[in-house]
Design a protein that fits this description.
CATH architecture: Roll
Low-confidence stretches: 1-22
Radius of gyration: 21 Å
Distance between the termini: 50 Å
CATH class: Alpha Beta
Length: 144
């Protein structure tokens, strides 16, 4: 078979038997993006109120939750909560949090990767870092 026949047969097969759609319908993307932004906004508000417990409500409440940071990997919702409470024991340590430059990449139905910056301002310093969040079914399942 020549290259042109292979192209014709391949094209015909794809028309007759399309590949499964891995992309998310545009309406679902918009809805999911709004839902994830709502979680991040709620987390930002909770953090700025000094409420670590409310901050973690956006995370997947599961032993499979992971958080990777400079101190290593925390596993499970309870482990992530303990890490936050150890590193941010009071309102002064928490400072003021802002998220910015969010990029959403939808990986399929109910799965997204969000990239962005987080900014933490405290009395003696300002920090700005990149972050990534994996969201599955409307919950944050991994933070790095």
């Amino acid at each position: 078979m020549t290259a042109s026949w292979i192209s014709i047969v391949t094209g015909l097969l794809l028309v007759l038997f399309p590949l499964p759609k891995w992309s998310v319908p545009p309406g679902a993307v918009a809805d999911d993006q709004v839902a994830i932004r709502k979680i991040l906004n709620a987390q930002q508000t909770a953090w700025n109120e000094g409420n670590v417990d409310a901050f973690l409500e956006g995370y997947w409440h599961s032993p499979d939750l992971t958080f990777s940071g400079s101190g290593g990997i925390a596993r499970g919702w309870d482990g992530v909560l303990a890490r936050y409470k150890k590193n941010y024991p009071d309102r002064a340590a928490m400072g003021h949090l802002d998220f910015s430059d969010l990029e959403f990449r939808f990986l399929g139905k109910d799965a997204a990767l969000v990239l962005g910056h987080w900014h933490l301002s405290r009395a003696r310093c300002r920090r700005r870092f990149l972050f990534s969040v994996a969201a599955i079914s409307g919950r944050l399942a991994h933070y790095s």
